[in-house]
Amino acid sequence: MRITLVGSRHFGVATLNMLREHHVTLVRVVVHDGEDRLAAAARAAGIEVVVQADPKLVTAAEIAPGTELIVTAHSHARVSKEALAVAKLGGIGYHPSLLPRHRGIAAVEWTIKEGDPIAGGSIYHLADRMDAGAIAAQDWVFVKKGETARDLWERALAPLGLRLLAQVIDYGKVNGSLPAKPQDEQFATKAPNLSPGKH
Known about the structure:
Elements: E1 2-7, H1 9-21, E2 25-31, H2 37-44, E3 49-51, E4 57-58, E5 69-73, E6 78-79, H3 81-86, E7 91-95, H4 107-113, E8 118-125, E9 135-142, H5 149-175
Parallel strand pairs: 1-2, 1-5, 2-3, 4-6, 5-7
Antiparallel strand pairs: 7-8, 8-9
Helix pairs in contact: 1-2, 1-5, 4-5
């Protein structure tokens, strides 16, 4: 399977490593910042790196030709409809909540703020509305008492994301399609940034 990875930072690098172990062909890595650690890891692995012209948007031209699936990992950019149309299977991303709960940039922080006893992760199909595409895979974890958002992410939600992404990609390799279960809008909640100015 030929994959273009769009992402950044530590989770982007962890996803890159997981994909390389899963015997898919990483044809290109797309980043919003050429100095990002994901860009460095991709270059070190001999993978082509493209820096987005607009940090908030991924265009069709930035997706590698012949891409079958776009995977996003810690990317805050919207993948355009045209870009998704270039890839045979479209695009998927990982969101660290049980979608449709906590849609938005601060899902893990809101999980803690709301005192949720259970957290989770969702692999979802990239769509026009943020975090609103159909679900390809989902699983949950317990939240420990006194845990911070960072603790929860590092202990449980980042590893869960990598496992679910691997599961969905393996399914796609075997079946030539991805599972897709629409989100139930009546349960949707928003998780906007809690600290304005930072991200």
